[in-house]
Structure formats: C-alpha cells, structure tokens
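Appendix B. Raw example, untouched.
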Amino acid sequence: MASAITPPSAAAALRRVLYGNAPFLVLVAAYVTVGIVILGRVGQAPSLSFTETYIVPGLLVGLYLFATFLGAIVVHVFGARRRPSSRETWRRVYERWLGHERVIGTLVIFVALPALLDVMYGFRLALTFFQPFYLDPALARLDAVLHGGSQPWELLQPVVGHPAVTRFIDVAYVYGWFAALWLGVIWQTVHGREPVRSQFLLTFALAWITLGTALAIATSSAGPVFFGRVTGLDDPFVDLINYLAAVDQQYTLHAVANQERLWATYTEWGGMSAMPSMHLAIVTAVVLAGIRSHRWLAWLLIPFGLVILIGSVHLGWHYAIDSYVGILATGGIWWMSGRFVRWWKQRMSYAEVPDET
C-alpha cells in the first residue's frame, strides 16, 4: 500500500515545479510588471477585472480536466477490461490527471498566463498611441510583388470565393482558432510531456511579447479591410470588402461584424494590428507542439493551419506577408526556445534536490 505524501515531499514537488517553469514565470512576470507601468503612464492600464481575466481560463481548464478524466476512466479502467476496483489502475489514472505535482504545475501556469494576455491586450489597444498606422501601403505593395503583381486575395478568390466556402472559413477562423489556442495551451500545460511542454509555453509567451507587442508596434498597420479608411489612398481591397458584405447578407459573417466592432473600438482608442498575424503565430506554435507530441496530428493540424492562413487573407484581416512573418518568426522562436529548454533541463538535473522520504 502506497504511503501518504508527506509535507517534505509536497514541498520538494513545489520546488521542482517552480524551478522547471521558472523561465516562463520570470518572463511573464517581467512583461506584466513593465507592461502595467508603461500602460499606466499612457492611461491604458489593463482594463479587464480579476474575474474577467481568470473566469474563462478557469472554466476551460476545469472542463478539460473533467472531460479527459472521465475519458481516462473509460479507456484505462473499463475499456481495458480491468477490474474497476483495482487500486493500482485508479492510482495511475489519478496521478496522470490529478496528482499533486500536475495540479501545482497547472495552477502556476494559469495564474501567470491570463495576466500576460490581459497586459498584451492593453498594449494592442494602445498600439496607435505608440506608433500610428503607417505601413499598410508598403505591405500591400510587397504582397503584390511577392504574388506576381496581384493581391493574394485576388488569387484565392476563384477557389474560395463562394459564399458557403467563405462561411466555413469564417467559422474556422473564429471558433477553430479559439479552440486551437486554448486546447493547445491547456493540453500542453496539463498533459504535455517534457521538453515539448516547456518549449511550447516559452514559445507561446515569447510570441505574444515579441511579435504581438514589440513587432506589432514597430510595424503598425491596420490590415486590408481597413486600408482605405486609414490611408485615404485608392483601395485595392474594395471588391473583397464588397464580396464579404454580400456574403454577410446571406450567412452573417463573424468577420464583418467583428471588423466593424474593432473599427468602433479603434476610433475611441485603438486595438487593430495586422503585422504580424498572431492567428498564424499561435497556430504555428500549436502545430509544432502537436506534431512533436504525436506525429499523426500533422494530418489534422497542418490542414487546419492552411485554412487559417487562407482565412487571414480571404476575410480581409491580414496581408499575406503578415501571416508569412507570423509563421516564420514563430518557427524561429520555437527553435530558440527548444535550445534554451534543453540547456535549462540540463541545469535542473545538476541542481535538483533529491525528494525527501
């Protein structure tokens, strides 16, 4: 019979969790601290309340644990035709889902992560305070150069420019991406295997900090659907906007409603950012972590990533170059994070304190 976990053992587990997650936690703490100070000075302190910041992540984590724990019972206890009363079987299932070290590791991440996203959102609302939109004309020209003189949306239109296809892409771009973001983060946080888990979390944080904050400010741009409104130039995206408006009359596109809502927010303060595409940055991180964890997921995640890439252009959110930069930059961050995590794990192996019994 296994003995109860003693206080020293629990303390050692806490040390292991904090030390193992230290790069992520220190990075997030520094970003949040600096961000609160900067945003406070420009009158744009993070606007979400404590409840708003943590309620959605908390509910999603709880739902994930409940659903997967029930699934584990079905698969490992009843599905494997083992006696439901087997203590060893139940112990393994419990440790895999609700063991003390796993719970502590989940809690420390989901205390830090929502705070990071809240501060990042504050920066994006204040983006044009730091740098007014200026890069849209250059990005549109670069897109044309890279795609043989045509805007990428024009090349996609014969293939995906059908109302039912547009509706499918619209739903995937909103709900599919939201699901990929939170399922990816929760899956890797709770059940991810090292070193992929740490590599993913570090990549996720660095992507929002370097790409979603610093690069977004440095390359301030509104995106194709807002091109004419922010530049006052001849708009090469008028036909795309008219097409989306026509489809919206038939299917009620999320893209059209969200774009108008975003424009209303921008006119009051800010909130738009095209370069780089964080939709593609986050999808890239999820795809890389998924494939590293289970190769067969490539058959699901790569096609999904392609749909998000097409949607970013077809729905008028991004110039194609925004998405290319998001993909390539995240790939670079993933590689650097992997090297750092390997070094950190080696350091941990030297510094680790044996568990007390």
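End of appendix B.
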